[in-house]
Amino acid sequence: MESATELWIWRHLGLRLPPDWEMLQYSLKLDSGRCAFADRQGFRLEMTWRRVTGAPDFDRMLSDYLAKLADEGMEGGHRIEQCGFQGLKGVMDGQTITRFGRFAADASCIVELVLPWPDGRDKHLEQAILQSFHEVVADESGYSRWRALGMDVNVPVSLKLGSCRVEPAHVEWRFMDRHDHLALRFARRGMVKEWMDQSVQSWLERDVKPGRKPPPRWRHERIGGHAVDRVEGRTLPSGWLRRTRPLTSEAWICQEDGRLYSWVAEQTMVLPERPLKCCGGE
Hints:
By secondary structure, this protein is mainly beta. The protein is built from four helices and 20 strands. Helices cover 13% and strands 48% of the residues. A seven-stranded antiparallel sheet has the order 3-4-5-9-8-7-6. The two termini are 15 Å apart.
């Protein structure tokens, strides 16, 4: 399944899914939240998480859950086990649904995967998805990885995802520090040939608006086959104190998919060499 799947990483939880399954719903909350994926037929997977203080009593929890679902109209409900997950199978509103739970130790979360089967249960696909589930811990340098909605980023583990903007031909993530101040911004823009009538450097200058004191430092280089424009300097003065902030940003058009990728750091921090990736494997 691996060669024909897409890797998704959200909230330090990773899954491999069919390439035509898209994320339609997501949550920014770390303590409890939900992501939902769908294809042309409708919703295909729901992943929920809830932070707990320790490993739960799954036997008791699933027994209570089974009784609750039976009260809600599930028919033929029974316990199942697959790939280290404890779960339930039943029929709701004429459709087979399988539900699986697991304790994610590093995140200290109960993770539930719910799979509705509009055309009947596909055990091979179900097994492949469950086997692909894994926790994505910070690397040795203290960076955590997020991969979804066409972007693949590595950010300091101290930052949290504060907002996610998803629009046609535009995805933008904003990562915040512990004071909820903007630290990092990543973006991916499509349909570039239809709207972009200037150089990447000119676009980047308009996007980040670097201050003139001190003069911004520009650099143009090729990285991984891409022509990358980079600027380092300070932001324009803002607020009644007219303060400026450190500014570092890069932008380029991916030669493989033709989209414009950019990232902006508005705080002093040590970043990986390529905090945002556009292509070149997983």
